[in-house]
């Protein structure tokens, strides 16, 4: 393995736009992402319209490192050794006894295999970035809604959530929906002030294909 790194030996140096060349106001961007996902689930998949109403403090539910146990509708916060520190069913906190009954005291058996890769057939999903993290809250509220109206024990909403993610992050969605909302509401709400961004958000946020 090479033991040194030198920029002089690089033909090209690339920078990730998000949170590197472009910083975001996280509370505002989180709300925009949540609303986009929720709108898709309600209008395209027939979910409860209550998902569109979101008290601002609900976003406190979102934190990096949450693991969604998709079939059970549970969200797990894990320690470094893989034990479950805390958990919720939907948005409702689980008791210590409930956690022990389902996940035990020791390392969670799926700790080393959980992935943040979006897949329709996944059983577990790791929320580790800001671009789908608001989806954790949306999924939790979907679980609450299904429990209230259908009394479900196993859940089958994940394929619809994957469709919402794919819909909102495809190139055409950025052009038609995201940039329109950004322009209408004011880019300064989402991106720390810049004359370039304020004048033309497309110049900063336009998707680029290599």
From TrEMBL:
InterPro entries: HAD-like_sf (IPR036412), HAD-SF_hydro_IG_5-nucl (IPR008380). GO terms for molecular function: 5'-nucleotidase activity; metal ion binding. The keyword Plastid does not apply. The keyword Magnesium applies. It comes from the Eukaryota. Keywords: Hydrolase, Magnesium, Metal-binding. This is 5'-nucleotidase domain-containing protein 1. It comes from Hirundo rustica rustica.
């Amino acid at each position: 393995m090479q033991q040194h790194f030198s920029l002089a030996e690089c033909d090209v140096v690339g920078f990730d736009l998000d949170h590197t060349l472009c910083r975001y106001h996280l509370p505002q961007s989180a709300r925009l992402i949540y609303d986009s996902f929720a709108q898709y689930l309600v209008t395209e998949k027939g979910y409860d319209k209550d998902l569109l109403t979101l008290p601002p403090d609900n976003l406190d539910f979102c934190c990096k490192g949450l693991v969604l146990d998709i079939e059970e509708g549970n969200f797990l916060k894990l320690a470094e050794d893989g034990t479950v520190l805390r958990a919720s069913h939907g948005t409702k906190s689980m008791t210590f006894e409930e956690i022990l009954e389902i996940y035990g005291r020791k390392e969670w058996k799926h700790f080393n295999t959980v992935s943040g890769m979006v897949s329709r057939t996944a059983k577990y999903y790791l929320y580790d970035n800001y671009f789908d993290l608001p989806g954790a809250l949306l999924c939790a509220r979907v679980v609450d809604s299904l429990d209230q109206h259908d009394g479900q024990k196993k859940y089958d909403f994940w394929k619809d959530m994957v469709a919402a993610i794919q819909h909102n992050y495809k190139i055409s969605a950025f052009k038609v929906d995201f940039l329109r909302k950004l322009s209408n509401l004011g880019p300064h709400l989402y991106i720390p002030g810049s004359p370039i961004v304020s004048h033309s958000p497309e110049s900063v946020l336009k998707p680029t294909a290599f």
